[in-house]
Amino acid sequence: MEKVLVLLLVALAVVYAVPDPRGIIINLEDGELCLNSAQCKSSCCHRDTGLSLARCAPKARENSECSAKTLYGVYYKCPCERGLSCEGDKSIVGSITNTNFGICHDAGRSRE
């Protein structure tokens, strides 16, 4: 029983000893390696080509190239910032091959 208590205390000490709120696996900053967009603060895990390493990147700004949501969690073009919509071709084949690219437009201006 004593050994279990000591082990528990050591484990708690290690958990609380980490001062940095940024994680190793989640809450990653732009430029850090990622496997899925859920790991990034920006919610965009981006790669340039199929053979390149994916890194967290900022979301696409107005009039920038963008991707709609991906099935895989890794983008060739990041999705748009909040308030913008990605207007372009959207097809089932493009969703599977991750080639549904468009341009970010302000949703409010598009309706005017």
From TrEMBL:
Ranges for the Colipase C-terminal domain? 63-106
Question: What SMART domains does the database record attribute to this sequence?
Answer: COLIPASE (SM00023)
Q: One GO cellular component from the entry?
A: extracellular region
Q: Which residues form the Colipase N-terminal domain?
A: 21-60
Q: Could you tell me which PROSITE patterns the record lists for this protein?
A: COLIPASE_1, COLIPASE_2
Q: Can you provide one Gene Ontology molecular function annotated for this UniProt record?
A: enzyme activator activity
Q: Name one GO biological process term.
A: response to food
> Where is this gene product found?
Secreted
**For this UniProt entry, which residues form the secretion signal?**
1-17
List keywords of the entry alphabetically: Digestion, Disulfide bond, Lipid degradation, Lipid metabolism, Secreted, Signal
Which CDD domains does the record associate with it?
A: CLPS
Q: How does it assemble?
A: Forms a 1:1 stoichiometric complex with pancreatic lipase.
State the protein's purpose. Answer: Colipase is a cofactor of pancreatic lipase. It allows the lipase to anchor itself to the lipid-water interface. Without colipase the enzyme is washed off by bile salts, which have an inhibitory effect on the lipase.
List the protein's name: Colipase
**What's the source species for this entry?**
Ursus maritimus
The primary gene name is CLPS
